[in-house]
Amino acid sequence: MSEMVGTTPSGEPLDVLIVGGGPVGASAAALLQVATKDARRPLRVAVLELNRPPAITPGAGLDSRVSALSRASERILTAIGAWPLIPPSRIQPYERMRVWHETVQPRSADVLEFDAAYAGEPNLGYIVENRLIQTAALTAFESAGGTVIAGALSRLRVHDHHVELETSAGTLACRLVVGADGARSAVRESIGLAAESSSYGQIAIVANVRTELPHERTAWQRFLRTGTLAFLPLADGCSSVIWSADDAAAESLLALSQSDFEQELLRQSDAVLGAPKLATERLSFPLHKLTATRFTAHRCALIGDAAHVVHPLAGQGVNLGLLDAAALCELICAALRKREDPGAQSILRRYERWRKSELEPIALAIDGFNRYLAHGVGPLSRMAQRGLALVNRSDEVKRFFITRALGLAGELPRVARQPSPAPLPPLS
Ligand SMILES: Cc1cc2nc3c(=O)[nH]c(=O)nc-3n(C[C@H](O)[C@H](O)[C@H](O)COP(=O)(O)OP(=O)(O)OC[C@H]3O[C@@H](n4cnc5c(N)ncnc54)[C@H](O)[C@@H]3O)c2cc1C
To answer: Which of 226, 239, 334, 366 could in theory staple to 231 by disulfide, Cβ–Cβ 3.0 to 4.6 A?
Structure first.
């Protein structure tokens, strides 16, 4: 092996290198670092991130890229010490969700309403700026002794006992590489893992708006025949609009003047929050779905959007990615306790089985919502639309959905199972 950065002074490879310090990669790194920092031999973990965003200056307006975080995500971010680093004044808990189809009135009994109180919870989750989640997780990782390397991965070569990575910061070596580098993952491509990917034929338009009526700590979502329109409540009283519209409709909306767009938003939201005024520029994101056919290869694992991308209508991308991170870290720590190699094939196989079996039904359900609620006009769609009103009449069915929205269903990693703050298991 030639001289490398990202190795120990004795020239040994790092234990784990995480490519991509987005919300998911940064949290995975912090989970590993925090769990092993007091061990006799702490794990040597580094993150390679090509574009670390600047921290948000206090008093700055809210970014328009936000995520709805589940209870499971809150627990994971609490366990790594990132949650307390997010200013409470920028976190908006939401207590209710109101979901309706354009064929019904927005405040009628046919609107599906989920209330945190049904499940005995204080809220259903939180709306937080993506940049804050990412910077808090990276800071927590560094505070626990981890290293963030500024640079981009160009190529990697997998050997029997280590992986060698060509990056703009030099050559790195590690025993396990974790691809957390998003939907266009260079890790996934370099190791030749195939992915099934297709366009939804939709573009998400994202902007913050100030509305005439208060958001009532409620996430509002209207299914339209041409997509989905959501208003997520923000801590400054504004709402984050996420409008996923068919390509042609979205292009027309983006071409509208500010005031014509606001008028269209008022009309398409059925004036549920009164007249909206844009508080930020409109951003647009073409929507794709993606599932890597394998989540692992020899000494390599994929997490977050590098492994799977789902439609944003259910607000699950970061939440699913954080569960990937927690599952992988739990298996790595269990292996370390048995003095096993963190890149061992047995760990990676268990990770892949665990997370694939959790993800597949969720991805199918999200696709179903998009296909039958947001678009369809046939009998299945009419059934799905009537189904919203039926779900609303059953507390039991509602609790089923609330548990899923909280991210507390299925086989959860230990750190997401416990009420916060969840201690990480000590490592000898
Ligand atoms: C409109 C919209 C709304 C959404 N709303 C929600 C929501 O409410 N809740 C939710 O949970 N999810 C939501 N999502 C999904 C969520 O944004 C993604 O799932 C999430 O950002 C994935 O995180 P990640 O860390 O896996 O990937 P990314 O956020 O894509 O981060 C990847 C990181 O890797 C770095 N990187 C990339 N290539 C390289 C390289 N070659 N070398 C080094 N570094 C590299 C990038 O700079 C980046 O920092 C939404 C998505 C969209 C489009």
So the answer is: 239
